[in-house]
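Backbone-to-sequence.
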């Protein structure tokens, strides 16, 4: 593959060129078939080329490709906004803006929180990920590769340890860090917002501790801080619910969505309480392409399909096949590098441990390559790049899912 005209800063995981895809299968330019457990990094919860999405997109292309909503509204944007109000399980009426990417949704959430509170401070979490644009990347709880060599970044931003049954941090430890923050780093009344992923994606598929989420909600209510849940990777069915915050029993003030929202077309959203979303002056939100008509047509279908489907059943089915394979690999004792299973529903990670022969990250990198040779495409995550994240479409046929898991087992044998 000739990458001579591509910036080397794009860290390409698999050196092959995909030509076509169907649900959980893809074919490269040489005609080789792979099972796709990357899913466009969580974009393809409904798989490659879902027939209802394809039909809606084709119809839309023939009718209206684009209108800049800020200038001249179009029906697709209005319908997506209305559909989101029904689809996102919060207790208040939802007001939204559509964006092109998750990072753009994050940026706009920061603007809304600043305008609504008149404050600037942001609290984010170790190992969190919210995008690669300048303000968003400063929220990421990881320096390399996001912050190196970029100088001063928009702040102030403070990071807390992420409490999870999947990490070594519990709710009390995270609360203690929060208390320290307000004693040592910043007055609480200078904090505009707290941003957190209900299940960390890039950070290694780790579920936020529900008890801590409840405490964050109380703190935000008491001190007028905006609570933002980033559901860009965990939303649209991945966790076995429409949004992962349903597992926490806590609702956010603002929700970030993206990735699987439009089944592969570039669309994301910032949605939340009207009084917050209206805090910015007219003209302060928007964008030329954001809420593109074709992407909106796809998003409408995604929400229809997901509303009519049993997401819990999809999540349970995938969870049980992955958990069975993981149990088998651990029980066999042949793969000492295979550590614990993280995450929830169909948002599952497998930690790769250090052994006498290699670090967990080295094992995982070797696995990625061997698994590709065996016929399945995989993606790493985690601060140390030692967590395998599994993102097959939720619609993956059980046979194909098992075939992909068997390819992983075959690859494990080679480590
Ligand atoms: C939780 C989360 N937030 C934000 C983003 C950024 O989204 P995008 O790549 O669409 O800008 C991502 C992307 O991986 C993500 O996983």
């Amino acid at each position: 593959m000739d990458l001579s005209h591509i910036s080397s800063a794009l860290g390409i995981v698999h050196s092959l060129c995909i030509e076509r895809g169907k649900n959980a299968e893809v074919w490269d330019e040489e005609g080789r078939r792979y099972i796709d457990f990357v899913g466009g990094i969580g974009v393809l919860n409904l798989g490659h080329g879902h027939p209802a999405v394809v039909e809606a997109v084709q119809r839309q292309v023939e009718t209206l490709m684009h209108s800049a909503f800020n200038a001249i509204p179009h029906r697709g944007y209005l319908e997506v906004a209305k559909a989101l109000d029904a689809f996102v399980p919060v207790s208040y009426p939802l007001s939204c803006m559509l964006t092109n990417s998750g990072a753009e949704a994050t940026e706009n959430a920061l603007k809304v929180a600043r305008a609504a509170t008149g404050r600037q401070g942001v609290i984010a979490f170790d190992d969190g990920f919210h995008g690669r644009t300048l303000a968003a990347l400063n929220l990421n709880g990881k320096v390399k590769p996001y912050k190196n060599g970029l100088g001063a970044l928009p702040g102030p931003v403070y990071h807390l340890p992420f409490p999870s049954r999947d990490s070594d941090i519990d709710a009390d430890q995270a609360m203690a860090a929060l208390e320290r923050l307000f004693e040592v780093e910043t007055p609480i009344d200078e904090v505009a917002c707290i941003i957190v992923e209900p299940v960390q994606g890039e950070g290694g598929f780790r579920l936020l501790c529900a008890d801590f989420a409840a405490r964050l909600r109380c703190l935000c209510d008491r001190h007028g801080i905006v609570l933002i849940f980033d559901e860009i990777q965990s939303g649209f069915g991945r966790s076995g619910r429409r949004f992962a915050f349903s597992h926490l029993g806590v609702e956010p003030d603002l929700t970030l969505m993206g990735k699987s929202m439009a089944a592969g077309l570039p669309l994301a959203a910032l949605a939340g309480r009207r009084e917050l979303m209206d805090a910015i002056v007219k003209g302060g939100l928007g964008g030329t392409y954001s809420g593109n008509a074709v992407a909106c047509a796809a998003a409408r279908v995604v929400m229809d399909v997901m509303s009519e489907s049993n997401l819990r059943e999809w999540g349970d089915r995938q969870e049980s096949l992955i958990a069975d394979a993981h149990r088998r690999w651990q029980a066999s004792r042949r793969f000492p590098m295979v550590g614990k299973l993280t995450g929830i529903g169909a948002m599952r990670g497998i930690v790769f441990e250090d052994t006498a022969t290699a670090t967990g990250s080295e094992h995982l990198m070797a696995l990625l390559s061997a698994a590709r040779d065996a016929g399945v495409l995989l993606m790493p995550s985690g601060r140390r790049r030692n967590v395998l994240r599994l993102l097959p479409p939720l619609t993956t046929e059980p046979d194909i899912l098992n075939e992909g898991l068997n390819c992983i087992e075959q690859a494990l044998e080679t480590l």
